[in-house]
Design goal:
The complex is a heterodimer of chains A (116) and B (115). With 116 residues, chain A is mainly beta. Chain A is built from no helices and eleven strands. In chain A, strands 2, 4, 5, 6, 9, 10 and 11 form a seven-stranded mixed β-sheet that branches. In chain A, strands 1-3-8-7 form a four-stranded antiparallel β-sheet, with no helix packed on it. The radius of gyration of chain A is 14 Å and the shape is globular. Classes of the chains: A mainly beta (116), B mainly beta (115).
Chain lengths: 116, 115
């Protein structure tokens, strides 16, 4: 089983609908992240959380919200989806960086969202 | 403003030869740099990292070089294998002194290793 699991893997929805992407992890990490990948733009940070009580906006948080239900669960919501939110979404986790190996991000397999 | 740039969107290399993937950055305060590899339909996976206080880190066929004066890092894969065909992302970590550790990714380079 994957250490970082995302559901759904694929979703097609219509403009104006509410969508939730869920992420769960078994790595025991405190830090969780949501990224969005668009062609030619790399991975852009939407939201991140360093523990259950800590939620922070990333570079492109407008139109998104998150919920950290537990250490292992971090959900991303699109309250009213629009076509330019069509993208590949990744959840990731990390431990506190330190030492010669800076905190490695562990990614889920991605959720492909299409907004018509 | 793109703080981490990968100017080559794609690269083709013959099997057995060296693959060199490049990355430029603008922020001299980055603490660490990482390379990730991504296959289709999978999430990115960590490949190798380097601290800003070093200029080279090697792990098997993969070596990362950091040139701080040029704000440039490169990933060398020797010898290249068909299984190395993937998209490679360069990433930088900032905010170490504050503990925030934000990861900033480049746009990726698609490597194709030809058999």
């Amino acid at each position: 089983d994957a250490d970082v699991t995302q559901t759904p893997r694929n979703r097609i929805t219509k403009t104006g609908k509410r969508i939730m992407l869920e992420c769960s992890q078994t790595k025991g990490h405190d830090r969780m992240y949501w990224y969005r990948q668009d062609p030619g733009l790399g991975l852009q940070l939407i939201y991140y959380s360093f523990d259950v009580k800590d939620i922070n906006k990333g570079e492109i948080s407008d139109g998104y919200s998150v919920s950290r239900q537990a250490q292992a669960k971090f959900s991303l919501s699109l309250e009213s989806a629009i076509p330019n939110q069509t993208a590949l979404y990744f959840c990731a986790t990390s431990d506190l960086p330190g030492g010669p190996d800076a905190g490695e991000l562990f990614f889920g397999e991605g959720s492909r969202l299409t907004v018509l | 403003d793109q703080q981490v740039k990968q100017n080559s969107p794609s690269l083709s290399v013959q099997e057995g030869r060296i693959s060199i993937l490049n990355c430029d950055y603008t922020n001299s305060m980055f603490d660490y740099f990482l390379w990730y590899k991504k296959y289709p339909a999978e999430g990115p996976t960590f490949l190798i990292s380097i601290s800003s206080i070093k200029d080279k880190n090697e792990d098997g066929r993969f070596t990362v070089f950091l040139n701080k004066s040029a704000k440039h890092l490169s990933l060398h894969i020797v010898p290249s294998q068909p299984g190395d065909s993937a998209v490679y992302f360069c990433a930088a970590i900032s905010g170490g002194t504050s503990g925030t550790y934000k990861y900033i990714f480049g746009t990726g380079t698609r490597l194709k290793v030809l058999a």
